[in-house]
Description:
single chain, alpha/beta, eight-stranded mixed β-barrel, 11 helices, globular, Diguanylate cyclase/phosphodiesterase
Amino acid sequence: ESKARGRGRATLFDEDMLSEKRQRRFVERELRAALYLNELELHYQPIKNGSRETYAVEGLIRWRHPVRGMVSPAEFIPVAERSNLIDQLGEWVFRRACADLPMLGDCRISINVSGEQLKRDEIVTMMKRVVDETGVDPQSFVLEITETVATAAGPETVARITALRDMGFKIALDDFGTGHCGFNYIKTLPIDCIKIDRSYIQHLKDDEIAQVFVSALTQIARIQGLSIIAEGIETETEFELAKAAGCSSFQGYLLGRPERRLLSMPQDVQMRQVALSA
Ligand code: C2E
Ligand code: MG
Ligand code: MG
Ligand code: MG
């Protein structure tokens, strides 16, 4: 299983050596230390329009472990979610994004919010606190919530999402198509944007259902006044097909990988970055 997670990516340790519970506790302790030792980084992947201009970026967390190398969020976010660490981690991500915002020109920053965070009021008070302290404009941020979390949300969670949206944050439904895919949720949830999961984009070239699904979704989004982002664009063909299906925004390795240095930013933004880091 660890092999399937990707070549060259460090797994936390030999899974056979420790019980799952001990493993979790071990990672939790290490992650707690990582927060204090500055081992976490927020990398940015460009989100582009049809003309391949970057208008936003998604912040993706990375853990640069001194011994194990880059650890994937897919491995440590679930650990953080099972402990109270996710709140601290979520605050770290938002603060990092606030600090990086001036270096991104006019780009909006999208950050991922865990479903666990949305189970408590702390998410709302924390975001308010950080906005007050840093003076950032919430309109510069998009909060990504997965479809699975959003469609399973009870009234209290929906109220928290609404409170964040009322503060000015934009809300995006992430990984759309992997959950229950209820089209009626699009009408009722307080959202501004839908991100179509890569599993659909991947099959646009050979699966008619995927084509119809994406086209229908873009039409519904247009009626509802929502923007649509096609995730995981890896090839020119996928880019063209997603565009033909009505998508207006695109994200994926073809257009830029997540990076700490924002090399895919426009020239003027890069200059600013240099000036600010000097
Ligand atoms: P996500 O929010 O759906 O992020 C997109 C994932 O797809 C990222 O994986 C990104 O690196 C990857 N990706 C982007 N373009 C392509 C492509 O063209 N092809 C392929 N195969 N993959 C692509 P990553 O960075 O490993 O993150 C995985 C997940 O971990 C994210 O999925 C998100 O749910 C979670 N995550 C990442 N950062 C954070 C964070 O700061 N907070 C929380 N709560 N979750 C995070
Ligand atoms: Mg996301
Ligand atoms: Mg996604
Ligand atoms: Mg995902």
